[in-house]
Amino acid sequence: MKNLIQSVLILIAVLISGTSGAEEVVYAQVGDTVTLKCQADSYRYLYWKIDDTVIKDLAWINDLGGKHFITGEQCIELLTDMISLAETVSMTPRSPLLPGESLTLSCSVNTLGNKKPQVHWLNPQDKKENSLVNKRVTSQDTGKWTCVVTDGKNKKETRVSVTVVDLSPAPSDPKYTSKSKTLNIPCSFAPHVSWEHVKARDVQEIYWQFSPDPSSGLVSKDTQKLYFLNLNDSLWKNTGQHRELRPVQNLKNGDLSLSRKQGREEDRGNYVCNMKFKSGAILNRAVRVEVLQIISSPQTDLVSGQPLNLSCSLGHPLPSGLHVKWSPPPGSSLPALKSEHHPADVIIPEVGTGDGGKWECSLLQGKNQLTSAVITLKIEHRLSVWMLVIICSAAAIVILIVILVFILCRRRKRKMRHLRHRLCQCKNPKPKGFYRT
Q: Which keywords does the record carry (predicted)?
């Protein structure tokens, strides 16, 4: 690749001949204005020269009163492009770079006479390096590199910018979530890397992959492709495997993260953010997601007096350095846990109505809460023997009353039917009384 930057720094030697015999070196960058000052109390003949070559009609003065100046008296301002002596800074190849690519930075000075100034580089972390830098870059090389030229008390600096296209480092620890917490899976461009930098390196594809954990409950354990970025409109497209995870639509800020309002058990696993370039280079970052879960046995709806077992876990034994803390309802029958490290399993032989409500399990690393999970228990009153006797007796009395009313109603209907039958046996009944025969 061609050099991107070739910055020039002018090295000017000002030689003042006369009684003072003074000599001064001035460093300046191309485009700067240079002011050369001569201060001599007495002289016979004073003139400006470069590398022992007298520049005629430029500036001179003698003790007989003869003089000639382009501008001013004893001072001359020169534009730096009048002089060809230079210090050269170069960078190969052009920026932006990808991690692992080779970078060469050189800084050399053409000096006057025996002048040999000290030259070195300062990297973006302000650490000193040689005048010739040849290395394979990482994201830490992004920033301003400074070429420093030092000659006694004189010092001049020239800077060049280096950009390394990379992703921000993945979190060293897993991302913890639960059904009670949001889920955010981070991935972004490294600081100072823009979407324009990424496109300048011919990015071919940006996509997310997911490998489920065996404890996630998913049937398929194969790696799944969740989302890919459409480079034409800079919009994310799903592959049907996204499980309602949503990418952050903020590509201008370099944010490639996935998120959801609540975590799920099936979110456990490894997520990989990939960025593939036409050169074949692939940048990726892996994020591990752990889901904290509370399991109630036998269930969440109980009757007072039943046994209860609450288990708080990540689907596997807790790693060293992590512990849980339970927060039961205010009226819970659970004995106070004095230790800061609570057991992952809580066993209550007989639950009471005070055990109903929200139970919270917090996952801690030291005193830092990583996430928490919440479960709600519903506890019904247990019926005593006397209450059962009273209820059964009342029910029996009600049933007996209903049966008695039914029997009485049937008997009354039968009597009425029989009476009507006795009164209506004659075809033409006569009224009661005496009749003449």
A: Immunoglobulin domain, Membrane, Signal, Transmembrane, Transmembrane helix
